[in-house]
Amino acid sequence: MNKRQKITIQDVAEMAAVSPMTVSRVLNNNGAVKEATRQRVQQAMRSLNYRPNLMARSLAGRSGLFIGLIYRNPSYGYLSEFLLGALSACRRLGHNLIVEEPMLDRKMVDLEIIERRFLDTSIQALIVVPPLSDDPELIDVLERLKMPYVCVSPRLNNYAGASVGMNEIDAAREMTEYLLDLGHERIGFIKGPPDHRASELRLTGYKQALEARGRPFDARVISEGDFTYVSGMRLTRKLLDAGSSPTAIFASNDDMAIGAITAVHQAGLRVPEDVSIVGFDDAAAASSTWPPLTTIRQPIREMASSAIEILERVVNDTNSGGSVPPEKLRLPYKLVVRQSTAPPAKTD
Quick check: bond before 131 cis, omega within 30? Predict the structure, then answer.
């Protein structure tokens, strides 16, 4: 993140050929400005990458920073936890959160929405949630706008910005080792979508655990889901219908794991007596499903809170004329054992 050159209302006024007072009226949504003039001022603000100093405006009666959060994540459990963490931190620190899903469709990010929306609303800083944190075009736009931002769990090569995350390979390896220690030899794995780098990282951890224990990797028990409940249910049915079904299934997020539990029950089998199921995230539903889910506790709320705190430091330092190197924070995970796992049933 580079230090942004200070652009003033006077600069905007000169480009738009209006008075500074007119620019101020546009910023405050004053209806006394003609629409053509308003559009000319807004275009000048975009061209200059101008954003009002909300810190200074807070002294006149407005408080806190305006922090944007952009997402495109199909896991409702993950998003719910992240939003709760971000909202709690904003409430504690006196900031404001604006949430946006800047999508043209399910897979394409509308970069123009991001640029126009965040310039017009004067957002000062941005949190980017995966998989958008892995989008190089989006990161390029934020760098060009000189927008302070934090990426959550970024996997881009040579990413140099601020980030918050955890070691997903180690976490997936520990979960797989736990299942092996229980005695499971055939462990199915439901990975996430390919545009989530976490999908490959968690599969890597699974593979590393098998290799370290001298177990063969069997691609036939690997399925690709999309981090949704429905995909977990559908792919578990497929695994159970296979010639030699697994005695344990590692779904790489909780939504898919809960779908897997449903599929096992629908097949007339029991969890964990017939099939053990584990997940990843420890979202709220993990402890309320039946049986309660063994999972990796990803510190989702803590990551959201830490991202807000990092952005606060960056914006405050920038407004005081300084600059800080990008912070890269890695938080600890935890294996949470509940009732969805047990040793495999003995066969005669």
Answer: yes
Tell me the C-alpha to C-alpha distance, in Å, between residue 60 and each of 6, 51, 97, 321: 20, 17, 20, 21
Instruction: Please state, in angstroms and rounded to a whole number, the distance separating the CA atoms of residues 193 and 62.
Output: 42
Both tokens of residue 184? Answer: 């499971």
Strands 328-330 vs 334-336: parallel, antiparallel or unpaired: unpaired
Full set of structural domains in the chain with CATH? 1-50 (1.10.260.40), 59-166+301-331 (3.40.50.2300), 168-298 (3.40.50.2300)
Residue 28: predicted pLDDT:
60
Record the tokens describing residue 146, joined without a space.
């000189």
Spatial CB neighbours of 74, under 8 Å, sequence gap ≥ 6: 193, 226, 227, 228, 255
Running DSSP on this structure, what letter comes out for residue 267?
T
- Low-confidence residues of the chain: pLDDT under 50: 1-4, 55, 58-62, 104-106
pLDDT single digits (tens) 127-172: 999 888 888 888 888 887 777 899 998 877 678 889 999 999 999 9
Q: Could you tell me whether strands 66-70 and 125-128 are parallel, antiparallel, or unpaired per DSSP bridges? A: parallel
Is residue 241 within 8 A of residue 307, CB to CB? The reply is no
218: number of Cβ within 10 Å: 14
208-225 confidence digits (pLDDT tens): 999 999 999 999 999 999
CA distance 62 to 155: 37
Residue linked to tokens 């949704």:
228
User: With contact defined as beta carbons under 8 Å apart, do 82 and 282 qualify?
Assistant: no
Of 207, 135, 201, the closest CA to residue 169 belongs to: 201
Q: How far is CA 271 from CA 99, 181, 206, in A?
A: 38, 18, 21
CA–CA gap between residue 198 and residue 172 (Å, rounded)? 10
Pairing relation of β-strands 222-224 and 187-191? parallel
Q: How far apart are CA 179 and CA 124, in angstroms?
A: 45
